[in-house]
Amino acid sequence: MSAESGIELEFVLESADFNGAGEASSKIKRTLQQLGVRPDIIRRIAISAYEAEMNVIIHASRGVIKAGIHSDRTELVVEDEGPGIADIGLAMQEGFSTAPDHIREMGFGAGMGLPNMARCTDKFDIKSEKNVGTKLRMVIYH
Amino acid sequence: MKLAQVRIMLDAEVLCGREWLDREVKSACGADLMSDVLAFTKEQGLLLTGLTNIQVIRTAEMSDLVAILFVRGKRPGPEVVEMAKNMEIPLLSTKKQMYEACGLLYRDGLAGCSLKEEHFCRQNPELN
To answer: What is the pLDDT of residues B40-68, one digit of tens each?
Structure first.
């Protein structure tokens, strides 16, 4: 596998599908394991993908997560249609969350998702438009 | 510390994964917030939690946790146990409360999880 060709995985995410939440990240993780990527790198990719997946399921109406796996890096692109993020700076602060109580009861909505993703990735880019949606692009070098 | 020792110390019941009790536990984390678990735990860590839903198993899968120990006698439903079994994640349940369970393990030398020790993650992430 050269640095530029690679494997592309794509999964559709549905709003409030809490039982299916994590399936996409799980498949991405297993593919990386099969490719022999280092376990500590896989862990960072899996955590970033899972946090992003949960965010779409919690906040958006629908979304897509794509993983581009190359020999030197994995690129995660997560795009959703939904309310968007009004203040990205605020959303990046640990502890800030707009998730409702029933999400918190499930163990999410602690306001750690975006900071976690930023911490676990080598490149993190977020664009959001209110009432349109959010697009995340993350790169993790192998 | 072996998972088998954790089981004895907390008088815990094994809900699945009896065959994996010889696994080594390197550190532990007590939390009901899964994002905190994703941020703070390290691989081969043990999660002590009062939450019993599917997201707990998924979180353990993503974080490469060694096992999950439910406190206060909590037990997940059969579909959650089945999922853990498929992912080879042992599940244990103790009647002890979170504070006491964590305290007993800590007193016996099992370290906590510290964000600062995660070498590969950025400490001060900025948008880039």
So the answer is: 888 889 999 999 999 999 999 999 999 99
How do the domains of chain A map onto residue ranges? Answer: 7-141
- Whose CA is closest to B41, among B51, B32, B30, B29? B29
In contact, B66 and B113? CB cutoff 8 Å: no
Distances (CA, A) of B31 to A135, B28, B56: 30, 10, 10
CA B115 – CA B117 distance, rounded (Å): 5
The CATH superfamily holding the domain A7-141 is: Histidine kinase-like ATPase, C-terminal domain (3.30.565.10)
Q: Are B32 and B49 in contact (CB under 8 A)?
A: yes
- Ramachandran angles phi, psi of A9, nearest 5°: -115, 140
If you compute the radius of gyration of chain A from its CA atoms, what whole number of angstroms results? 14
CB atoms within 10 A of CB A8: 11
- Residue in A closest to B34 by C-alpha: A107
The ipTM is: 0.89
pLDDT given at position B121: 57
Flag whether residue A22 sits within 8 Å of chain B, measured between CB atoms.
yes
Domains, chain B, with CATH or none:
3-110 (3.40.1390.20)
User: pLDDT by residue (tens digit) across A28-87?
Assistant: 999 999 999 999 999 999 999 999 999 999 999 999 999 999 999 999 999 999 999 999
CB of B64 less than 8 A from some CB of A: yes
Mutate to test the interface with A, among B29, B36, B38 (most CBs of A within 10 A): B38
Residue B2 main-chain phi, psi, to 5 deg: -80, 150
